[in-house]
Amino acid sequence: MTVEVRVPTLGESVTEATVATWFKKPGDAVAVDEMLCELETDKVTVEVPSPAAGVMGDIIAAEGETVGVDALLATLNAGDGAPAAPAPKADAAPAAAPAAAGSAATVDVMVPTLGESVTEATVATWFKAVGDTVEADEMLCELETDKVSVEVPAPSAGVLSAIIANEGDTVAAGGKLAEMSSGAGAVAAAPAATPAPAAAAPAGGKDVENAPSANKLMAEKGVTPASVTGTGKDGRIMKEDVLNALNKPAAAPAPAAAPAAPRPAEDAAREERVKMTKLRQTIARRLKESQNTAAMLTTYNEVDMTEVMALRKEYKDLFEKKHGVRLGFMSFFTKACVHALKEVPEVNAEIDGTDVVYKNYVNMGVAAGTPQGLVVPVIKDADSMSFAEIEKAISEKGKRARDGKLSMAEMQGGTFTISNGGVYGSLMSSPILNPPQSGILGMHKIQDRPMAINGQVVIRPMMYLALSYDHRIVDGKGAVTFLVRVKEALEDPRRLLMDL
């Protein structure tokens, strides 16, 4: 029986998509709900599952073609007789194994789905070398995208027989990373492949193996591992380390040629050139795009933190005892922003072409600094969460951000962002918008300052607040009103309870 595979509903206002990647080809056996292909729209990436078990028939829409909703993508041969096609391969394998003791099945290691709107990654680190024996689900390598790091597990137990994409190579989603040998002959094949990694063993007597690309470059340039300082995991020598070692000797003779007049080469010998990570490149690109695209403006106010600090001090022990998480300031600010966004919805909106898209929900982005760079995990539906739920979400996502374990889904869909520069001691700053959002609130250091209250000068814990906003959609009145509502809610937290 022939089953048609069609383009699914792509979402509100989305009428067409581009076929990005086919995971199956004609003749391949497929199971129900197994991914057949991936479609890419101007907003999201959509995976198309198999509607039935069977064998792939014809592919109607090739990679790169644009298709509309419900368009025919491919045909599938399903039914009682459909799975019979791949059966001979499965039956033949056990029969052939005893006859050829060295036979082994080749398994491809592919780039996994990288997430919405992410089409490529850089191979950061190979944890295994050619000839290594690996277990199923053991980590083979780590990929670095412009948003997160992705670990690639072994699809089966066996021996890593070939590395197709070396460290530093850029690979596309669904691309081939390596080949593995699995089956009866896989372990036997391992010794034949081990001499290449063995050459890296003398590198300072370390147990870790250097990057294959580094070994190749050292062999070509006649560089000894002992003369190179490894900056990779556990002291692993990377290709960049070899390049740095090669560059330093070349710069050193320059001062000797002109000892009386120091030259720029002297400074070069003391400098270190490191390629920007994908994440850092994306941060730079997106921040500059934000400045070039949005009509960005910042307005300021200040808030007396006396009442929030008193409330937190009074209830923090009971709060932690009941909810198992500390009561911080972020939940107060999140609640205050949610309250203000209801009154000034344009701050929670975005521009899409010539349309303004108003969000009737709040997905709160919370900017977090990590060793790899700035990331913004998103707390979905923050407007319907309690103080405890907000604090738990912030704590959990903050830890995952520091550990580099955030998924793509956890950093997408934000409608408004809070950035707390105060944790680093910042007294005042102008935060940059996180496109396509139209507003970002900057928190700062709480500092005691003399304030005039009821004709008296008193010392109060004050914080400057900064709201950067897109003036194309948010007027000055709306921006100032938003900040004033945040200020009022924090200076009298009871207003949050009464929705005032």
From TrEMBL:
Catalytic EC class: transferase
GO CC annotation: cytosol; oxoglutarate dehydrogenase complex
One Pfam family cited in the UniProt record for this chain: E3_binding
Reactions listed under catalytic activity: N(6)-[(R)-dihydrolipoyl]-L-lysyl-[protein] + succinyl-CoA = N(6)-[(R)-S(8)-succinyldihydrolipoyl]-L-lysyl-[protein] + CoA
UniProt domain Peripheral subunit-binding (PSBD): residue ranges: 209-246
Pathway it works in: Amino-acid degradation; L-lysine degradation via saccharopine pathway; glutaryl-CoA from L-lysine: step 6/6
Domain Lipoyl-binding: 2-77, 106-181
Keyword field contains ATP-binding: no
Amino acid composition bias (Low complexity), ranges on this chain: 250-260
Origin: domain of life: Bacteria
Subunit and interaction comment: Forms a 24-polypeptide structural core with octahedral symmetry. Part of the 2-oxoglutarate dehydrogenase (OGDH) complex composed of E1 (2-oxoglutarate dehydrogenase), E2 (dihydrolipoamide succinyltransferase) and E3 (dihydrolipoamide dehydrogenase); the complex contains multiple copies of the three enzymatic components (E1, E2 and E3).
Family as reported in the entry's similarity comment: Belongs to the 2-oxoacid dehydrogenase family.
Name of this chain's protein: Dihydrolipoyllysine-residue succinyltransferase component of 2-oxoglutarate dehydrogenase complex
Provenance organism: Celeribacter neptunius
